[in-house]
Design a protein that fits this description.
The protein is mainly α and 73 residues long. It has helices spanning 2-18, 26-45, 53-65. The chain is 68% helix and 0% strand.
Length: 73
């Protein structure tokens, strides 16, 4: 779990620095990232299996790239 936490902390900084302010304000980008990460943290605290990190990363890539969440036509 420690490598995952360290990776998320590093990725948070990279993500916040890469999002242009004209697209998304910094505080909104931070809130978006923290909301997704919260499910991983709370799931571990309560003993539930957290969302698979690879699925979470895939979701972030799709949201940032602008691809829809549905399957391609």
């Amino acid at each position: 779990m420690l490598p995952l936490a360290a990776g998320l902390l590093i990725f948070r900084g990279v993500y916040l620095n890469s999002v242009p302010a004209s697209v998304l304000p910094a505080d909104a980008a931070a809130a978006l990232f923290d909301t997704f990460v919260r499910f991983i943290k709370e799931g571990r605290k309560e003993g539930r299996k957290p969302i698979a990190p690879d699925r979470l990363a895939r979701l972030f890539r799709r949201l940032i790239a602008g691809a829809g969440l549905g399957s391609p036509a």
